[in-house]
Specification:
The chain is of the alpha/beta class. The protein contains 14 helices and 17 strands. The strands form four sheets. It has a five-stranded parallel sheet with strand order 7-6-5-8-9, covered by helices on one side. Strands 13-10-15-16-17 form a five-stranded mixed sheet, with helices on one face. A four-stranded mixed sheet has the order 1-2-3-4, with helices on one face. A hairpin with a 2-residue loop joins strand 11 and strand 12. It is globular.
């Protein structure tokens, strides 16, 4: 009898133990990312595996980060990857696109260093900067090594344009993990915005990040639906000349998708690619001389500035009709462009700005957030 009880007990212990182990090592959700193409988040009971699969364009390398409150909870099979103890206590960020996620998740006090502080426009973050709580780390468009090491941040949120990562390798050798953020590589409006979940993992604010993103998605689709049945779609030109080359967004790019979703007809929508086309002035003028709307004419703030730089700009119909709109006019207190900081996190507001331009009858009395007419 006793032996039978022992066998049953041993059986239950073994089964329950295996079940517990299986539960620990099986993700709750295989991948909680929906729109972003370069990010994966796999949640387990005691840890989260975050993969950055496109750290830069055409990347062949993937970065994997295992995040948990205790490294002892991480299985041996995952201990070869970079471990991040969460919630992260402090960070050095390297792009203004990282700032709005810190603000949205109420984690502004976690930022202790940043290169080129003048680029930061957030009111909440500027108050911390003005109080001396965020250190200037700029060093020829890179992070100053000595100043950063002295700060001893728990992590650096890095950004690399290509496979040359030596500027960050020195920090990793000094014991400071670099976690690559590639929101800028995403080419869809909602794909960029979903990177708030990256910060949600780091700060143990995943529920808040998910809720924030779900609201943005809802607002975006709601706005898009407003123009889903419009019959008139104004023709749209974008970009400007830089050193004798006119750069226009390609047809699969972030801005091209915005224009299409807002009920516009982008003149280069049939081009393939997610970057920019390099064209001559003559090529652009031939195709876009009669464009109804011109979006993003470089860094110009006024019509006078445009013709002073190039008198031929005045030949476009959109110039003559004063139908040119810029995201360079709205700046923070120290000159940072608000669009480049906040737009990737709030594609719903960018979309509404464009709808109000293309179809003002749909959004009457709308006050733009990022994009407004030149003066």
């Amino acid at each position: 009898m006793r032996s039978s009880i022992f066998i049953v007990t041993l059986f239950l212990f073994t089964v329950l133990g295996c079940k517990q182990k299986a539960t620990t090592n099986s993700p709750k959700v295989s991948n909680s990312i929906t729109y972003a193409s370069g990010l994966e988040i796999h949640d387990y009971n005691d840890f989260t595996v975050m993969k950055v699969t496109k750290p830069w364009p055409n990347a062949t390398k993937t970065y994997t980060y295992v995040c948990s409150k205790d490294k002892a909870l991480v299985p041996d099979s995952l201990k070869l990857y970079t471990f991040i103890k969460t919630p992260v206590t402090n960070v050095v960020a390297t792009s203004t696109t990282h700032i709005p996620s810190l603000v949205a998740l109420n984690q502004t006090e976690k930022l202790i260093g940043f290169p080129n502080l003048d680029y930061v426009s957030s009111e909440m973050m500027r108050s911390r900067i003005d109080a001396g709580k965020v250190m200037e780390l700029s060093d020829n468009e890179s992070l100053n090594f000595e100043k950063t090491i002295d700060l001893q941040p728990q992590i650096i949120i890095g950004l690399s344009m290509d496979s040359e990562t030596s500027k960050f390798n020195q920090f990793e050798k000094a014991g400071i993990p670099v976690v690559y953020n590639a929101d800028w590589v995403e080419t869809s409006p909602l794909g960029k915005a979903e990177w708030i979940k990256f910060f949600g993992v780091l700060f143990d604010q995943q529920e808040q990040a998910n809720a924030y993103f779900e609201e943005v998605v809802f607002n975006y689709h709601q706005a898009k639906a407003l123009v889903s049945e419009v019959t008139y779609r104004p023709t749209v030109l974008s970009g400007a000349i830089f050193q004798d080359v006119w750069y226009v967004p390609q047809g699969d790019s972030w801005m091209a998708q915005f224009i299409n979703d807002a009920g516009g007809r982008y003149l280069w929508s049939d081009s393939k690619g997610t970057g920019s086309l390099s064209l001559s002035f003559e090529t652009v003028f031939e195709k876009a001389m009669n464009a109804d709307v011109w979006i993003g004419p470089g860094a110009f703030n006024t019509f006078d500035q445009m013709v002073a730089a190039n008198k031929h700009y005045g030949k476009f119909q959109s110039f003559q009709k004063r139908s040119i709109y810029s995201y360079s006019t709205k700046k923070g207190p120290t000159g940072g462009l608000i669009f480049y900081e906040d737009a990737s996190n709030r594609p719903d507001l960018v979309l509404k700005d464009l709808i109000s331009i293309f179809h003002p009858e749909i959004l009457k009395n709308y006050q733009p957030t990022f994009i407004e007419t030149l003066k």
